[in-house]
Every structure is written in C-alpha cells, then in structure tokens.
Amino acid sequence: MESAAARETPGAEATRPPAPPPSPSEPPAAPRARPRLVFRTQLAHGSPTGKIEGFTNVRELYAKIAEAFGIAPTEILFCTLNSHKVDMQKLLGGQIGLEDFIFAHVRGETKEVEVTKTEDALGLTITDNGAGYAFIKRIKEGSIINRIEAVCVGDSIEAINDHSIVGCRHYEVAKMLRELPKAQPFTLRLVQPKRAFDMISQRSRSSKCPVEAKVASGRETLRLRSGGAATVEEVPSEFEEEASRRVDDLLESYMGIRDPELASTMVETSKKTMSVQEFAHHLDSVLGEFAFPDEFVVEVWAAIGEAKEACG
C-alpha cells in the first residue's frame, strides 16, 4: 500500500516534495549500555586487591576470584563481605551490595577429630558455599562439639568416616550427622580457612542466633541466583528481611542449617500464594529436593505471616 504522502490526488498538478533526509549531525540514539559492575576483592589472609566482574552465580564468582589471584576455584571455602575475619554475620549469601568488598577465605590446614555422639544433637549448624563445600556456621554452647577445641566455626567438613562429602549440600551433610548412631565414635576430616596472624586464636561460637548482618551497601544489591542470571535489585524491605530471618531460624531448628538465600527464596515464594496449601505446592515445585515436612511448611507460613503483621 502506498503512503498518503506518495499518492497523487486526482486533478492535482504537482506532488508534495519528499521530506529532507536526516541531518548527518544528528545520529540515531545508541542503545543504553548495561553498566559494568566491578567488585574489589582480596584473599582474607592477605593479598593485593583484585577487581572482578562478569559473574552471575557463586561458582562463577569463585572462578573470577581464583583467576584474579592465580589459584584454583576449589581452593576457596567461602567469602565474607567487608571483613577479612571468619565472621559468619558477614558471610556472602545470595546478595552483594554494589559497594561491598569481597574477601575470599581459602583452604588452610587439614585436621581430623574423633567424636563420640553421646546426645542426639552434636550442636553444629551447617551451611554451604553454593559451590560444593559445607562448613560449620555455628557451634552451640555446651554441646558435644563445643567441648572439642580443635573444631572451629568456618571449618569445612571434607569427610565423615573417610567418606568424602565434597559436593553435598548443607542439608544432606546435616542429615548424615543426625543419622550417625549414638555411643559409636566417628571421624570428621575438617579443613580450616587459612588465617592471617590476627586471626590465629579466633574461635567463634554462640548459643544465640544473631540477626544476619546486612550485606547491602546503598540502595541496590547484586542478587546471585542458582538458576538464571544475576540481577540488580533494591535492598530487601523491612518485611522481607524480618520474614527471611524468621525462616532462617526455623531452618536451623528443624534441619540444622542456616541459609539466608534459601530463606529469602521461600519468602519470595510465599508472595505468590494465598494459602498454606498453595504455598506447600509451590515449595515442592521450586525446592522439591529439600523434601520439607508438612509441619515445617506450616510453621514457615505462620512465621512469614507474623513478620508481615510485625512490619505493618
């Protein structure tokens, strides 16, 4: 079909002159470039400062850090934000503030300890780095493990009775430890993070559950996802932070793990549902590998509801 400007009107003696070509001084607008996100990083025991970019998940983050310092990605046990110390409140989870400084804790000495399970619970809270290493996040005061001085917060659990658990998720390791028979000794092979001189005597333990420190700096964070690309998002709201904290507490009491990113995912899932039954169905589809018991799901739903009421 011809345009109206190109058609001739019957009886007209001349056609409308064509529009002048665009001025060469006015080039078409270039598409908006995605901003480069560059993060500063160091090895926690001491190193020059490196710069990394272009990662979308934890494994890629470790690979970038390893490349910056000429080490293997498997040398990295976990990362902390804005602190070189083995501080579990500064642990890197699923979010990094755009101004955060990343400290990578690498493998140090390997040690083996023999433990006799005289109670049902060992007193350990397990988490993992999202890249194959499970490690100790908390030691309960007065527990079996608390009485073994060689075991420290931050130690990676490499093997149980010479059976390697590298590659296992935190909930799998916690389940293995729960199922060990009482009164029968077993061996833990642990790898402690390499430490600077001011960290040699550090042994953090707590019977209480401190609120996880914010990993955000400013109004935006980089959200790392186990599936899909990383996204820049607003800092979590007061409700999201409170609900995630309560869910993380339940993960520890039910499963012996702490995982702020898992807790955040469960809170996000709850926003898409209107009932506990619908919530349970969505959890099965998104996080089915955890096989959460029904009573746990009900408590999580209630905790999220209480957080919503508390935050108005």
UniProtKB/TrEMBL annotation:
Residues 112-179 form the PDZ domain. InterPro entries: GH2_GIPC (IPR055349), GIPC1-3_GH1 (IPR056814), GIPC1/2/3 (IPR017379), PDZ (IPR001478), PDZ_sf (IPR036034). Gene3D superfamilies: 2.30.42.10. Residues 1-32 are annotated as: Disordered. Residues 17-30 have a biased composition (Pro residues). Pfam families: GIPC1_GH1, GIPC1_GH2, PDZ. Signal peptide: none annotated. SUPFAM superfamilies: PDZ domain-like. PANTHER family: PDZ DOMAIN-CONTAINING PROTEIN GIPC3, RGS-GAIP INTERACTING PROTEIN GIPC. Belongs to the GIPC family. This is GIPC PDZ domain containing family member 3. The gene is GIPC3.
